[in-house]
Structures are given as C-alpha cells and as structure tokens.
Amino acid sequence: MTNAAGDHGTVGDDGTAGEPTAVVRVATRDRVATITIDRPEVRNALSSAVLGGLAVAVQACEADPEVDVMILTGADPAFCAGLDLAELAAGQLELAFVVARDAPPWEQGPLPPRDKPLIGAVNGAAVTGGLELALLCDFLVASDRARFADTHSRVGILPGWGLTVLLPQAVGLRRAREMSATGNYVDAATALEWGLVNHVVPHDELLEFCGQLAGDICSNDSAAVQRLFRSYAEGARVSGAEAWAIEADAGREWRRGGGGSLDEVDRRRREVIDRGRSQSSD
User: How far apart are CA 198 and CA 18, in angstroms?
Assistant: First the structure.
C-alpha cells in the first residue's frame, strides 16, 4: 500500500501487493486513496490480475485507518474496456475470487463490500464490464473525453455485476434499455444530462476535481459518512417501507453508541454555518 506522503504502491500480476509488474496502482495522500487500473495498452481491460488487484486494493483501503475516501480511475486513454475478451476466450480469465457462491448477489462483483465512499473518475471509455465497474462506484465524475456503452448484447454475453439494476437507477429504465439494446455510446455531456455522472470537467482537471470532492468528504465525521453509506446500500436492496425502517434503526443504533453528542453536534453545526457562508460568497 502507500503512505500519507503519496508514495505509490502496486498490485502485481498475481494480485499481491508490491509486485514489480503492476496492473493496479494505489497512491494515498491526505486520507484519499487513488486506485488506478494500469493496462493502457489494452484500454485497462479486466484481466484476472486486474480483478484480483482491485479486490486487494479496495479491501486494503477499507481496512486502512489512514484512508477515508477512495477514487477509482484508469490510466489514459480509457477508464476500462470491460473484461479481457482474449483471456476470456482462451479460458484463462479467473472469476472465482469475485463470485462467492454463498454471498448475496450484490456482493458477487469485482469490488468487495465497503462502507468508505468510492468516487469513480471516468477519464475515457467505460464499456460493458467497465460500465458496470463505474456503476459500482458511489458516484461518478467524468472527464470531457469520457464515453459510456453497454455492449453486452453485441458481444453476446449477459451482465452479472448488477448492470440491469444499477443502470436504470442512474438513468431511468427506458434509457437503460436503449443503451443495452443498441450498444451505442453515450458521451460525457449526455451522461450528465441523463444523471449517469454528477459532473463533467476538462480532462486535465479530472483527478484534481475528484480530490477536492474527496477532501470535502474527509472534512466530515468519517464514521457518520460510512454509516450513512451503509444505510444507502442497505436501503437500495429493499422496498421503500423497509428502507425507511433501516434508516430509523441506524439512527437509534448511532445514538445508543454515543454518536452525535450534543457538544460535538453543536461544534460541527457552527462549522457548517461558516462553511455555508463562505460557499455562498464564492
């Protein structure tokens, strides 16, 4: 892994940290870990090594007390072109470590369960499995070079990492159906209009912008952010009424555990007021 000074760690071809031939890089600075898929020569296609490396990196960041937020991106020019089809066709793509048969469906993807926020910094094409990987992030920021496509039906395979659930949540059912049925690309401006991404920024400003958002997150109560994100995740998998109950239970559990003491809440409330005034004057 990395240290707070921003030194780089790597995940190698066998999915272990620190191997010299790296396909996943991790750099940590100011409590923010940037995870980069580093196979630019094949548009960051998801090989066995990449899938294993992503799992190792996210698990390590989730367990690291010096990390509050993660950013996921790809080495230019692409975010991720999806599964490595050459490795898949050769029968060499190992998916066992991302499909735990005894795990619920929402944990059978390439990213392990987590509570810490994960921002997707989409720097180029996010296609098929790459689109699914982006959808597994908590929210997305796109460079003006980003493009999105679901080409599962063009390739002749079916999604298995939640695309038919997460894409309609992001863009609506009819637009999701259009993307899946046509396989057409959606550019960054359209992705913003449809709600697939939260922001579009100039390409060279992508990581800086994501870092600013991550810094805003880090300035909050990290335990509260993580508990909120757990409530979001749990509520997304149940009916509306059950989601309300999950939030209420979380609030009661938080108060019983000593969260939200009056003195601390009052201190943070004053900070919020000052921050709101400063942002209003920008």
Answer: 33
